[in-house]
Amino acid sequence: MPRHQPGNSLKAARELYLEATNDPSARPLVVASWQRSIEYKVKSGSLDAPYLDNPNLDSPLARAALPILNRLHEQLADDPVSTIITDRNGVVLSRKVSHEGLTTHLNRVRLAPGHVFAERYVGTNGIGTALASGRPVVIAGRQHYVEELREFHCAAVPILHPTRSTLLGAFNLTTIRQGSDGMLMAFARSVTAQIEAEIAAITSRRERALFHDYMEACSSARPGPVLALNRDVVMMNEQLSAAVTGPDQYALLDHAREIAEHPRLEGTRSIALPSGRVAELRVSRCRREDSDAGAVFRVRLIGRAQPTPAVSAPPARSSLGLVGSSPPWLRAVADSETAFVAGTWLHLTGEAGVGKRTLVEALHRVHGTGRRLEVREAPPSDAPAVIERWLHDIGELLGVPSNLLLLSDVHLLGDELRQRLTNVLARRDGSATAQVVMTSQPSMVSADDELDRVCRASGEVPALRHRYGDTEHLARFFLRKYRPSGDSRFSTDALTMLQRCPWPENVRQLESVIRGLARRASGPVIHADDLPPECRVSSNKVLTTIEALERDAILRGLMDRNSNVQRTAQDLGISRATMYRKMRRYGIVPSSLT
C-alpha cells in the first residue's frame, strides 16, 4: 500500500484509495475493503468500535473455541501475540494475551470482549475484512483503514460450520511485531481448523444423540409417525411425511419448534391442524452431557381432514357466534361447549389475550339461561385475612348450584394457595354445587398437580399465530365493531402485514390495534402505512409497558429516517451497538419498514 498519510477527512481517505487502486502491490481484497469502508463513511482519523453488553458465550462456537484458546494462552506465555474469537457480526467474544505491553496497546484501541470490529464500524481490519470477504486475510500496518490500528499486524480466518458451511465467526491473531505474514497466517489457519473440528465434534455428538433417540422411537414395537428436531436438524420418518403434508406439516413443525425451544417441557400435547385433524404429540427430551440435544415427538393423528373452504367464503362461526374458522379454534370451542353443556368442570388453558374469558362468557350467554356468572381472580395480596376471605367466598359461591364460577388465571396462585383451593373444591365436587371453569396460562413445565385434576375436562385455546387465516376475519370484525358505519376497509398490503404479525398478546392486542385505527381520522381505506409500529415486528415476546414504548420509539425513528440505523441511534441518543441489540430483542427488521 502507498505511504501517503491520510488525514482525518473522508476526502483524504478517498485520495488514498485512488492511489491504492493504481499501486501494483495493492491486493484486490484490501482495495475492495477500503472501498467498502468509504461507502460506510468510516472516519479514518478516529476509532468507533461499539460495545455490546453480554456477548453470547453459550454458542457452539464459543464452547468449541474457548478451551482451545486457553491451551494456546499457556503455550504463548509472554509472547506478544493476542488470540481473539469473534462471532459472525464481529463482536469480540474472547481475547487472550499474556504480554502486558500488548494488552495496553489492545485496550487503547478497544480490541477487547464486547466491542464490535465489523468493517462498517472500524473499516479495513483483520476481523472485519475476513468476515466481510469470507476469506483468510492478513491486514498489516498501513493497510488498516483507521489510523489508530496501523501499529498492528493481524491474521484472521473465517470460522465456518463444518456441515452447513455457514459463517459462525472469525479467529484473529494480532501482534505489534513485524514478521512473516505467511507464518502468522499458517498459525491462524491451524487454530481455525482445530476450532472447526471441535465444532464438528460437538455438533456431531448432539446430532448423534438426537439421531439415536429418533431411531429408538422409529424401531420400537409400534413406532407410528415420529419427528425429531433441534435448532439445526429436522428428522421425520416415512409414516409422518406421508401422513402429514402441506399446511398440516407446516403447522406441526411450527408447534414442535416452539415446544423444543423450552428444554424442560415434556409430556403430551394436542394441537389442531389446519385440515381439522388433531395431532397428539408425546414429547421426550434428548439430553446428553448435561446439555439439551433436541426433542423427539411420537405423533398420533386423530380424525380426518376436512375439505378446505373456498378463500372467498365468509368466516365460519360456531353456535356461540364467535369469530373464527380455523380448525384449532373451532375444536377448542366445540370441546369447551360439549363439557359445559354436560355440566362438567372445565379447565381452559391458553396464552394471555387468546379469548378464554370471552369463550366462557359466550358459553354462559348461549347455554347458561337462569344461571349467574361469578368471576373470581387471584387474591390481590398474600395477607392471611385476604386469603381467608377469598377462600370463604369461593366456598359460598360453590354452594349455590345455579352459579357458574369462573376462577380466572389460577396459574398465578402460589403452591400453598393452590393446595388450599384444591381442598375447597374437592370437598364441594358433586352434583349439588356450582359449575366451575378455571382458566390459566400454559406452563413451560408440564403441570399435573391436584388442582389440575379437579376439573374433569380440559382444553387449550390456541394462540392467534396458530389460528391460520383468522387474523383477517377478526380484523374486519373489530373494524365493523368500532366503525359501525361500514365505510372502512383494509387494503391488501395492510391485511398482509396484519397476518404476518406474530401478535404476542393475541386477540386482545389485535383488537387494541384496530380500535386505535378506528378512532383516528383517516380515509375509507386503511393502508399498511396507517398501521402502528408494533405491526412491523417479528418477535412474539410479550413486552412491559416501558418496553413497548421503547420499541415504538425505535420503530418510528427508523421509519422517519428511512431505516437508517446510525441516524436513528443518534436521534435517540444511544450507540449503534445498543440500537442493534434492541432491534434484535424486539424483532425489528429495518428492511421490512420501507
UniProtKB/TrEMBL annotation:
GO terms for molecular function: ATP binding; sequence-specific DNA binding. Keywords: ATP-binding, DNA-binding, Nucleotide-binding, Transcription, Transcription regulation. It comes from the Bacteria. SUPFAM superfamilies: Homeodomain-like (SSF46689), P-loop containing nucleoside triphosphate hydrolases (SSF52540). Gene3D superfamilies: 1.10.8.60, 3.30.450.40, Homeodomain-like, P-loop containing nucleotide triphosphate hydrolases. Pfam families: AAA_lid_14, GAF, HTH_8. PANTHER family: SIGMA FACTOR, TRANSCRIPTIONAL REGULATORY PROTEIN. This is GAF domain-containing protein.
